[in-house]
Amino acid sequence: AASVFSTTYRLPISTLRLFSPYGYWEDRRRFIPTLILNAIKGKRAELSCPSYVRDFIFIDDVIDALVHFLTEKKHYNEVFNIGSGKQYTLQQVVDEVRDMSSNKLKVTWNDRKSNQLEPSFWKADITKTKKQLNWKPRISLKQGLQKTYQWILRNKNLYETK
Protein backbone atom coordinates (compact mmCIF):
# COMPACT_ATOMS: atom_id res chain seq x y z
CA ALA A 1 0.00 0.00 0.00
CA ALA A 2 2.80 2.45 0.87
CA SER A 3 4.52 1.71 -2.42
CA VAL A 4 1.37 2.44 -4.47
CA PHE A 5 0.71 5.63 -2.49
CA SER A 6 4.33 6.73 -2.97
CA THR A 7 4.23 6.13 -6.72
CA THR A 8 0.79 7.67 -7.28
CA TYR A 9 1.42 10.87 -5.36
CA ARG A 10 5.22 11.07 -5.77
CA LEU A 11 5.68 11.15 -2.03
CA PRO A 12 9.05 10.21 -0.56
CA ILE A 13 7.83 7.04 1.11
CA SER A 14 10.43 4.35 1.54
CA THR A 15 10.93 1.27 3.67
CA LEU A 16 13.88 0.70 5.96
CA ARG A 17 14.06 -3.03 6.61
CA LEU A 18 15.79 -3.73 9.93
CA PHE A 19 17.70 -7.00 10.33
CA SER A 20 17.84 -8.25 13.95
CA PRO A 21 18.38 -4.97 15.81
CA TYR A 22 19.46 -5.23 19.44
CA GLY A 23 20.59 -2.97 22.25
CA TYR A 24 19.25 -0.70 24.96
CA TRP A 25 15.63 -1.06 26.13
CA GLU A 26 15.07 -4.30 24.20
CA ASP A 27 12.30 -6.57 25.45
CA ARG A 28 13.66 -9.16 27.90
CA ARG A 29 12.05 -12.03 25.95
CA ARG A 30 14.18 -11.42 22.88
CA PHE A 31 17.30 -13.45 22.17
CA ILE A 32 20.14 -11.16 23.29
CA PRO A 33 18.50 -9.80 26.48
CA THR A 34 17.57 -13.40 27.38
CA LEU A 35 21.23 -14.41 27.07
CA ILE A 36 22.54 -11.45 29.02
CA LEU A 37 19.98 -11.68 31.82
CA ASN A 38 20.65 -15.40 32.25
CA ALA A 39 24.40 -14.75 32.25
CA ILE A 40 24.04 -12.04 34.92
CA LYS A 41 21.82 -14.25 37.09
CA GLY A 42 23.89 -17.39 36.53
CA LYS A 43 20.86 -19.19 35.11
CA ARG A 44 20.54 -21.57 32.18
CA ALA A 45 19.07 -20.19 28.94
CA GLU A 46 16.93 -22.49 26.80
CA LEU A 47 17.39 -21.56 23.16
CA SER A 48 16.37 -22.89 19.77
CA CYS A 49 19.13 -23.88 17.34
CA PRO A 50 22.85 -22.96 17.56
CA SER A 51 23.35 -23.01 13.78
CA TYR A 52 20.66 -20.44 12.97
CA VAL A 53 22.26 -17.44 11.27
CA ARG A 54 21.25 -13.82 11.80
CA ASP A 55 22.46 -10.38 10.82
CA PHE A 56 22.58 -8.52 14.14
CA ILE A 57 22.82 -4.73 14.15
CA PHE A 58 23.33 -2.57 17.23
CA ILE A 59 20.68 0.09 17.88
CA ASP A 60 23.17 2.98 17.64
CA ASP A 61 23.93 1.92 14.05
CA VAL A 62 20.19 1.72 13.32
CA ILE A 63 19.73 5.29 14.58
CA ASP A 64 22.71 6.43 12.52
CA ALA A 65 21.18 4.82 9.41
CA LEU A 66 17.86 6.59 10.08
CA VAL A 67 19.65 9.94 10.39
CA HIS A 68 21.47 9.32 7.09
CA PHE A 69 18.18 8.39 5.45
CA LEU A 70 16.53 11.59 6.66
CA THR A 71 19.42 13.86 5.64
CA GLU A 72 20.23 12.39 2.21
CA LYS A 73 18.20 13.30 -0.88
CA LYS A 74 14.62 12.09 -0.88
CA HIS A 75 14.10 8.55 -2.08
CA TYR A 76 10.84 7.49 -3.69
CA ASN A 77 9.42 4.01 -3.30
CA GLU A 78 12.72 2.49 -2.19
CA VAL A 79 13.61 -0.33 0.18
CA PHE A 80 16.82 -0.06 2.20
CA ASN A 81 18.23 -2.95 4.22
CA ILE A 82 19.60 -1.87 7.59
CA GLY A 83 21.91 -4.54 8.95
CA SER A 84 25.57 -5.24 9.56
CA GLY A 85 25.91 -7.14 6.30
CA LYS A 86 27.58 -9.90 8.32
CA GLN A 87 26.27 -13.26 9.42
CA TYR A 88 26.55 -14.73 12.89
CA THR A 89 25.29 -18.03 14.22
CA LEU A 90 23.35 -17.98 17.46
CA GLN A 91 26.22 -20.05 18.89
CA GLN A 92 28.69 -17.26 18.07
CA VAL A 93 26.53 -14.75 19.95
CA VAL A 94 26.27 -17.12 22.92
CA ASP A 95 30.07 -17.48 22.92
CA GLU A 96 30.56 -13.69 22.92
CA VAL A 97 28.15 -13.20 25.84
CA ARG A 98 29.72 -16.13 27.69
CA ASP A 99 33.18 -14.54 27.30
CA MET A 100 32.04 -11.28 28.93
CA SER A 101 30.11 -12.94 31.76
CA SER A 102 31.67 -13.69 35.13
CA ASN A 103 28.96 -16.34 35.73
CA LYS A 104 29.72 -18.13 32.45
CA LEU A 105 26.42 -18.43 30.65
CA LYS A 106 24.90 -21.91 30.53
CA VAL A 107 22.76 -22.86 27.53
CA THR A 108 20.47 -25.72 26.57
CA TRP A 109 19.70 -25.99 22.86
CA ASN A 110 16.19 -27.18 22.10
CA ASP A 111 15.06 -27.40 18.47
CA ARG A 112 11.48 -27.70 19.67
CA LYS A 113 11.67 -24.02 20.65
CA SER A 114 12.27 -23.18 16.98
CA ASN A 115 9.55 -21.43 15.09
CA GLN A 116 9.10 -23.55 11.95
CA LEU A 117 7.97 -20.47 10.00
CA GLU A 118 11.11 -18.55 10.87
CA PRO A 119 13.99 -18.84 8.40
CA SER A 120 17.17 -20.45 9.72
CA PHE A 121 19.35 -17.97 7.80
CA TRP A 122 19.15 -14.28 7.08
CA LYS A 123 21.70 -11.66 6.20
CA ALA A 124 21.17 -8.13 4.90
CA ASP A 125 22.58 -7.09 1.56
CA ILE A 126 23.49 -3.50 2.46
CA THR A 127 25.20 -2.61 -0.84
CA LYS A 128 22.39 -0.27 -1.95
CA THR A 129 22.09 1.28 1.52
CA LYS A 130 25.83 2.00 1.71
CA LYS A 131 25.85 3.58 -1.74
CA GLN A 132 22.62 5.59 -1.76
CA LEU A 133 22.55 6.66 1.88
CA ASN A 134 26.31 7.00 2.29
CA TRP A 135 26.05 4.86 5.41
CA LYS A 136 27.72 1.80 6.87
CA PRO A 137 27.54 0.21 10.32
CA ARG A 138 30.36 1.14 12.68
CA ILE A 139 29.81 -1.01 15.76
CA SER A 140 31.00 -4.62 15.73
CA LEU A 141 28.92 -7.39 17.23
CA LYS A 142 31.37 -7.68 20.13
CA GLN A 143 31.26 -3.93 20.86
CA GLY A 144 27.47 -3.84 20.64
CA LEU A 145 27.09 -6.85 22.91
CA GLN A 146 29.47 -5.28 25.44
CA LYS A 147 27.48 -2.03 25.44
CA THR A 148 24.21 -3.95 25.76
CA TYR A 149 25.60 -6.16 28.53
CA GLN A 150 26.79 -3.16 30.54
CA TRP A 151 23.51 -1.30 30.00
CA ILE A 152 21.40 -4.27 31.14
CA LEU A 153 23.72 -4.78 34.11
CA ARG A 154 23.18 -1.13 35.17
CA ASN A 155 19.43 -1.32 34.50
CA LYS A 156 18.57 -4.90 35.49
CA ASN A 157 15.79 -3.60 37.76
CA LEU A 158 13.89 -2.72 34.55
CA TYR A 159 13.93 -6.40 33.63
CA GLU A 160 12.62 -7.78 36.91
CA THR A 161 9.38 -9.73 36.60
CA LYS A 162 6.60 -9.18 39.08
UniProtKB/TrEMBL annotation:
Residues 5-148 form the NAD(P)-binding domain. This is NAD(P)-binding domain-containing protein. InterPro entries: NAD(P)-bd_dom, NAD(P)-bd_dom_sf. It comes from Candidatus Roizmanbacteria bacterium CG_4_10_14_3_um_filter_39_13. Pfam families: GDP_Man_Dehyd.
